[in-house]
Write a structure and sequence with these properties.
The protein contains 22 helices and 17 strands. The chain is α/β, with parallel strands linked by helices and 614 residues long.
Length: 614
Amino acid sequence: MKVYEKVLAACVDAYRNKYPIIFIKTEELELVRAIASSNALVVTMKRTDDEEVNYLPVENQKVFLKYKEGNAQFANLYIEKKLSPDDALPSLKVMHINGKIDAYKEREILEFLDRYTYSEDDNSIVRSSLILMYGNPVYLTNEMSQYCSIIDVPLPETDEIADAVTSKMYEHCGANFDSSIIKDLSYKLRGFTTVQIDKIIDNILSYPEKDGHSAIYDKQIIDMIIRERKKQILKKDAILELKTTDSGLKIGGMDSFIKWFDELSVSIKEAGLLYNDTGTFPPKGVLMCGVPGCGKSMAAKAVATKLNIPLLQMEIGKIMGSLVGESEKNMDKALKLAEAMSPCVLWIDELDKAFSNAGSNKSDGDSGVFKRMFGELLTWMQENTKPCFIFATANDITGMPKEFFRSGRFDALFAVYMPTRNECVEILYNQMLMHSSRVKQTNGKEIFDYECYDNALLCRVVDSLATEPNCKFVTGADLEKIVNIALRNIWTTVGVNNLITRRIWENALTKAINSTSVYGEGIENLDSIAMCYLKLLRKNFQSVSSDRGIVFSNEDYFVEYGNDGSVSNAGFRRNDAQTNGLSDYDTKLYNVLFERVNRLAKRYEVNNQFGLLG
């Protein structure tokens, strides 16, 4: 059954069940006009002289629709009404609702409902009439909602899309076209509405021919047209943000994650072939948690860049609305937008801030709203079959609902810890390459002498961070800041007309380190980092890195209980075999965190025992 037939059948069912208002959740006037013109709802009637039979259907006559330009984005449709009671006929009124209902329109609706509920004769004129609404039902008042049937508009299935593509091809090319393109194009058009699909196909078929061939046979043109259509959809709704990606982006210290993702990337990019050949749906996504400033956001951008698909950022603040039910409606709209944009990466940033209260027992106020939004997101994650790869990030998993960590929600749970010495060197190296690439694109010249990239130099710079008595342990964001400060200092002092030499660069980095604060210093921050390690290890998150500097392991963790069953002690046993051979920087970082983790572990286990943790 096609989308139009499904929606029309739902409307007819609601009309027969005597709903005076039917609300179709769509902004597409073409669909609403087709349903209003179908003569399947309010059948056009005429009066008879027979007192027992007051009305008879008018044969072969469509409902008379008068087109009137409205002051909104969409026009209004309405039935021509007779003023004389003797000529009165059942009426169909079509209204577009996409904002607060004005007083005039509200009075008109309420007057109709008053007459409708007053009449007890189901065959009367008023109870045979109907108000057909479309747009956003969140703006309905409580009184209107009681008498309203809300109709969802499903997205077309692949078979219906294929029929639409085939029909358009016959119109444009006759029978002389390659049918093999139907299957590929039908999959790419999944997630669009029927109206959007018609417009996209028209755009493709009207695109200028290249070497005598229609654009319908050019994969690059098709992808470009579909991509531009998706961008327009996002601009219109402004719920999801399309983020720019950098083809030259490199991330350091995440070799395990990169290896894992490389194995999945083909099944995401070729989701259509995967399904056709195996009946298997593409991967759902990944949850990456850990220390702030260690590259989670950069990893999301790197994933989208590697796949060469759109990166959509979902910010819960933009989804939250002021009206009752508006936030849930916006969440539903955002997820449908993601489906329409597929294949895409849906980046849900700072998941912990958005849903940390969704796991609580409270159901009032914002907590209740977040619970409903959370439930909607979970259901979509479980049921979605389109190639929308979820990249969710969080800094603190405390309070996050346990449902997020259950099997089937994400394909993997990755932890981002403090970078080791080797990873710090890699991050510094990548930062230098990035700045060098930017300058080359701007004025075509190199800024660093090749000796600036020397591994021994960069290792000395990182080792200097761990100099007693003021040890500094850095995140990726700290290293990015240090490079920026060093380059600014060089530009303002000696200039960059000539290549930056090894000596100048090492001195500039050292000066930048001494003049700035970093995340891995100070008691509060170090305790926060230690607690982050503890939580993620206890939740069995796997590290994004394979570097042996990450020496904490669940195998070394212990929990001891007293005679009464309460936690008496907890922590990590020191594993000297794993720490042998580490750099001075890594050894000092391990010792600092080992002491803090073991000091915090008992409190963590006690809170966990009494259900005080998420």
